[in-house]
Amino acid sequence: MLITRMKEKFPDSIIKEKEPLSLYTYTKTGGPADILVLPQEKSEVVELVEWINENNLSLTVLGNASNLIVKDGGIHGVVMVLTEMKAISISKTHIVAQSGARLIDTSYAALDAELTGLEFACGIPGSIGGAVFMNAGAYGGEVSEVIDMVTILTRSGEVKELKNKDLEFRYRHSAIQETRDIVLEVEFHLEKGKASEIKERIEELTFLRKAKQPLEYPSCGSVFKRPTGYFTGKLIQEAGLQGKIYGGAQISEKHAGFIVNINHATATDYIELIAHVQKTILESTGIELVPEVRIIGENIL
């Protein structure tokens, strides 16, 4: 049996069968992974990808799934979750963080080292790898502004170091979205700052986040990309959609740019509500809302 062979080949790896992905997504929705593996070292990822390729298996790589919806049918093949790879190290003005480290934790590591440049990220719940994938940003900052180098593993199994310019960053985009390379670790180049000023900015942004975002419910974060010249939340409010419920999913009454899980929502509830918002806004304003959240996986047959 495949999973038996996999466990024999990687006895020290965390490997699970038919694991519900709702245990890993921030929305608390999503069907099972055929095989789930949580590597703990870069070398382990390299060996796993080689084995997966040799066995002609499909591979889906996830960070901490904070801006992701996994469909209710789950994901076939192998799902690799990188959240166990979370080491963060600092040398002078450089921070190296493994792909599974949280962006929030990395921003606080910068504070401890009196390094400025990552304050904007203090409230972004995504992983380092996910942040690179989508060029995560908030409050006027983006990770592309402070990334120096990214170490990736290609799907064919080759380890490479990519410079900032190689990643083709733009709003909520990087080249990783096309290449599907696996981010192993990221090197940030920051600047020396004053701890008191860095801490003050982090506290200010943390207050704003708690005041404006519906952190009391599971959610996938900001659902839509911001259309040029408009605020997504305002468009949804003006369309009379704030508070709208599909199944157990609701357009947040606190921030209309978020959809929250208020009552055992399914991924299908989320997807149908997203589609309803897109249709309503397009018909009423002519503006096409593009999802920022990734939607992956299989529908229930």
From TrEMBL:
Its main location: cytoplasm. Pfam families: FAD_binding_4, MurB_C. The keyword Cell wall biogenesis/degradation applies. It catalyses: UDP-N-acetyl-alpha-D-muramate + NADP(+) = UDP-N-acetyl-3-O-(1-carboxyvinyl)-alpha-D-glucosamine + NADPH + H(+). GO terms for molecular function: FAD binding; UDP-N-acetylmuramate dehydrogenase activity. Cell wall formation. This is UDP-N-acetylenolpyruvoylglucosamine reductase. The lineage of its organism: Bacteria, Bacillati, Bacillota, Bacilli, Lactobacillales.
